[in-house]
Amino acid sequence: MRYLPAILLLSLAACDRQPAVPQEGVQRVALDEAARETMAEPSPDTSGARWSVAGDGQAIAFGYVEEEPFLTLACEVEADPPEMVIIRHATALPGQGALFPVLGNGMSSRFLVDATLGEGGWHWEARLPAEDPQLEVFEGTRDLIATLPGRGTLEIGGSRIPGEFVEWCRAGGMPEPVQAPTPETEETTED
């Protein structure tokens, strides 16, 4: 019995050992490099940024002319029902997800965005039906505030362009029909 404490100590010491990790398939990452990739980005200066329409007319982008935009709204008109795609052009890593709150026009919307691989690398993207009521945040002409945690806040000046684009997408990419005046309205306008 007097050797029992020594045997217990040796047993406990053996239990604490970690099995050897195979070196194949192991990727080493410097901690300072990993920390740089996850550090918060400052909010960009959007004082001169504006909305512009893409050449094919199926997207609008908020940013500076001839530079990568800060935010893109795109419409997948071929989808059934039509889909809106919200892209926040900021650093993202595979597997990440976040809530992207957008405030303005008397409401607050929170879009679930995921890291998505695009032409310029990884960015944040949300896809939702064009009829989703959260998109009403883009309708109206008031300023918008869009914050992606760790990637800064976009201050977007008020514009009618996002609201018109959402309406266009909801209509399946078809312009609103122009109504010909009825004889009754013609008579009332002549007086």
Structure summary:
The protein is of the alpha+beta class. 20% of the residues lie in helices and 31% in strands. The chain has helices at residues 4-15, 31-38, 161-170, 183-190, and strands spanning 50-53, 59-63, 71-76, 83-88, 97-104, 107-118, 121-129, 144-148, 152-156.
Describe this structure in words.
The chain is an alpha+beta fold. It has a domain at 51-170: Immunoglobulin-like (Sandwich). 20% of the residues lie in helices and 31% in strands. The protein has helices at 4-15, 31-38, 161-170, 183-190; strands at residues 50-53, 59-63, 71-76, 83-88, 97-104, 107-118, 121-129, 144-148, 152-156. It has a 9-stranded antiparallel beta sheet, covered by helices on one side. The protein is globular and about 110 Å long.
Features:
191 residues; alpha+beta; Immunoglobulin-like; nine-stranded antiparallel sheet; 4 helices; 31% strand
Percent strand equals 25-35%
Radius of gyration: 27 Å
The assembly state of the depicted protein chains is: single chain
Can you tell me the CATH topology of one domain? Immunoglobulin-like
Q: List the total number of helices.
A: 4
Structural class determined from secondary elements? alpha+beta
The CATH class assignment of one domain is: Mainly Beta
CATH architecture of one domain, by name, is: Sandwich
Distance between the termini: 116 Å
Major β-sheet profile: 9 strands, antiparallel
The helix content is 10-25%
Overall strand count: 9
**What pattern of helices and strands is seen along the backbone?**
HHEEEEEEEEEHH
Task: Outline the low-pLDDT stretches.
Answer: 31-36
Categorize the overall geometry.
globular
**Widest sheet, order of strands:** 1-2-3-4-7-6-5-8-9
pLDDT averaged residue by residue: 83
